[in-house]
Amino acid sequence: MSEIILYDYIRSTAAYRVRLALNLKGIDYRSESVNLLEGEQKGELYKKHNPQGLIPMLTIDGHNLTQSFAIIEYIDSKYPEPRLLPLDPAERAKTLSNAMVIIADVHPINNLRVWQYLKDPFGHDQDDVVQWMHHWMHTGYSALEQAAPESGFFGGDAPDLTDICLTAQMYNAERFKLPMEPFPKLARIHAELGALDAFKASHPDNMENG
Length: 210
Hints:
Elements: E1 5-8, H1 13-25, E2 30-33, H2 44-49, E3 57-60, E4 63-66, H3 68-78, H4 89-106, H5 112-119, H6 126-147, H7 161-175, H8 184-193, H9 197-202, H10 204-208
């Protein structure tokens, strides 16, 4: 079997999601760092395989897969246990709906290249950027808080795609000091997920420290 390689950046929210999926599935892989701050994702060699020049990319089974959701769906299809997306069509749609609040509505307008563009060429300072990020995280979290269960995870007894997306986005919420008092259920879920081995192994701080 060929080596599975994740082209990764420890603080990339999208790459964090894929790390979580791989670790929850117990899949052996090698992480290959691509430094976004130094623009390595824009290099000719990397863009030859990923023309969009974004992180993550997963090399698996002779494919170079891009976009975190597409990668996770491939992983979930090929390695079905534990499931990250339900088989039941209605439950699957509910999970996708919750996950897409972050994948489609929060993360894309809060990621590095967006807030760099807010600064240059639009001239906004860091305080403006943080206010921007807080607004969109608060909007998405408000909807997720209503959908969140009173106990357990979004996936019930085991994490699902929504839990993966929440955890990765919560790293940004913590970095940029989003007040979490309005979201007690999300805060509880995040704390309980953080105690799981797969989530500990995927956390950027733990990777950075060895």
